[in-house]
Amino acid sequence: MQVKHEWRKKEKVIYLPKNCPEIIDVPSFKFITIKGEGSPAESSFANSVSALYSLAYTIKMMPKKMDTPPNGYFDFTVYPLEGVWDINDEAKANFTGVISKDDFVYKLMIRQPDFVNESFFKEMLDIAMEKKKSPLLEQLYFEQSSEGLCVQMLHLGPFEDEPESFKVMEEFAKSENLIRISKAHREVYLSDTRKVAPEKLKTVLRFQAKRS
User: pTM of the full predicted structure?
Assistant: First the structure.
């Protein structure tokens, strides 16, 4: 009997760091992805997340119903939501030290297991679009990317307190002769904000770095 792949048990190095900075080399992974901009409080953000999960669960469940599952198929736990965050070019050009949430640009994504490829993604997307009439499903795309050398840590608490954790991470990077490549960063959401109080949220923070 095949054992379900559970990322919380099998990939702790990637997804369950400690509440202190560490160096990690993140390999290439496959993702379903959608881009957006503006405050995460806007409905477009929640709708983007909903579209991603709709497809993610289609990819998880449909192979169990297929006469011939995709090559290399195995059962798995759906990976957590991730987001790569930055600010738009206008905000960068006129930066005053204060960031407005309205200036955010982001890329939301959910990692996919190795058996998922471009053609299987398109097949599952068509099925998801038949079941859920969401225009945002049309904006989802498939990509493979590698972060490479990074600094990461587990942030405990509200999203608004993340700058404190990033300050600790940057000081750690400096002590390790690392330079942060850009202010863009990745967040991996381990908590469900609908069920967990802000002070108890768990979020993996990660930024790319290079040797000085």
Answer: 0.95
